[in-house]
Amino acid sequence: MQNNIENSLSSYALKSKDTKGREYKEETPKLRSEFQRDRERIIHSTAFRRLEYKTQVFVNHEGDMYRTRLTHTIEVAQISRAASRALMLNEDLTEAISLAHDLGHTPFGHAGQDILNKCMKDFGGFEHNIQSLRIIEKLENKYASFSGLNLCFETREGILKKCSKTRAKNLGSVGRRFIDKKQASLEAQLTNVCDEIAYNNHDIQDGVKAKKIFLEQLESLPIFSNQMKKVLKKYPKLVGSKIINETVRLIINLLINDLINNSNENIKNKNIITPDDVRNCDNLIISFSDEIKKLNMELKKFLYANLYKHTDVIKMTDQANLIIENLFSAYVNDTKLLPSDYIQYNLLKINSGFKERVICDYIAGMTDRFALLEYSCLLYTSPSPRDKR
Ligand code: MG
Question: Going residue by residue through the chain (389 aa), what tens digit of pLDDT does each one get?
């Protein structure tokens, strides 16, 4: 049944029947495609559930109305699935990659990643994208026959968005394309752009709600003011947050329509017929037109300068540094502070010189609220929050 659905996809879409397979061989599913099974394994993973309490831009306890890493992920999956269908690509694969793309994020967002990378500088460093792969290949611990989720090659490779050649050499077949300078699948390329569409636009809404950026500032951006004019022409009496929300809605439509049209043009101009043509192409196929690329870049620069570098958002960096540095050094000095079952499971790694990596994995897996509680327990030498669960 699934193969019939996949037969209606374009010739350059990746199909389940052509998968390079899973590391541990499993029976072919009867009622769903291989990529559907991947998507469902990701949803059932521990790392996916924890996204609910991980920072996107605003720390979880700052308010209930802001995006979390989980709601961001769901928005990416929604946008990329719709675009995938319009481009006749494999929706199941696109959705699986989208749902897993941020699994490796630490508590406290990018600030958490930077400080954990600093803590790990003598032990191989830390990067959230590589950590997403590490989670699905090794760290998820629920299946009897294998560690990780045993996902298809195409899903694993699609999650690895960027990677240095040095790191790629240690990642086996999924790192190969970075050494051979090949392109990712169209499904993976699409997820990357849809990630950007999602966060740029929801960060406008959250930034305004948090009073870190203002409508008057946004009006200086052509991508925003052009769409806002259309909104006000249609609804002249509109006020407040509805202006922002309607404008953001039009911006997302503008970006997706341009992305689909321009990518279809690229497919035609580059004579893309098969997934291998995509892989061997010199450039990315999924991309905006030059005009929209420029407008989108202005929006990104605006958000960087006015939201991500806002004094109040930067304050979180100081808090993340303090908490993560202290947790890391406390566990390095005394591994007994880690849960006993976690030590037991990782004993071989700890005794073989990988203690810091085991600790890094533990901290990276924490939610914001767990890291805060664990830190305060260490500070006041009270029982860890995990003992109360
Ligand atoms: Mg993301």
Answer: 555 778 899 999 999 999 999 999 999 888 899 999 999 999 999 999 999 988 877 665 566 678 889 999 999 999 999 999 999 999 999 999 999 999 999 999 888 999 999 999 999 999 999 999 999 999 999 999 999 999 999 999 999 988 888 888 888 899 999 999 999 999 999 999 999 999 999 999 989 988 889 999 999 999 999 999 999 999 999 988 899 999 999 999 999 999 999 999 999 999 999 999 999 999 999 999 999 999 999 999 999 999 888 888 788 888 889 999 999 999 999 999 999 999 999 999 999 999 999 999 999 999 999 999 999 988 776 666 665 54
DSSP 13-75: S--GGG----SS--PPPSSS-HHHHHHHHHHTSHHHHHGGGSBSSS-GGG-SSS-BHHHHHHH
Assigned token pair, 238:
């509109």
Q: Could you tell me the distance, in angstroms and rounded to a whole number, from the CA of residue 316 to the centre of ligand 1?
A: 19
Our separate counts of H helices and E strands in the chain read 21, 0
Ligand 1 centroid from CA 239, angstroms:
30
Reported pTM: 0.94
Q: How far is the CA of 233 from the centre of ligand 1 (A)?
A: 33
| Separation of CA 193 and ligand 1 centre (Å) | 10
Instruction: Strands of the chain (E only): list them.
Output: none
Residues with CB under 5 A from ligand 1 (ion): 102, 195
> 132 CA distance to ligand 1 centroid (A)?
11
Q: Ligand 1 centre and the CA of 216: distance in Å?
A: 27
Alpha carbons 309 and 364: distance in angstroms, whole number: 23
Where does 126-185 have alpha helices with state H? Answer: 128-134, 153-159, 165-168, 176-179
The Å distance, Cα 194 to ligand 1 centre, comes to 9
| Longest CA pairwise span in the chain (Å) | 68
Rg (CA), the chain: 22
Question: 347 CA to middle of ligand 1, Å?
Answer: 33
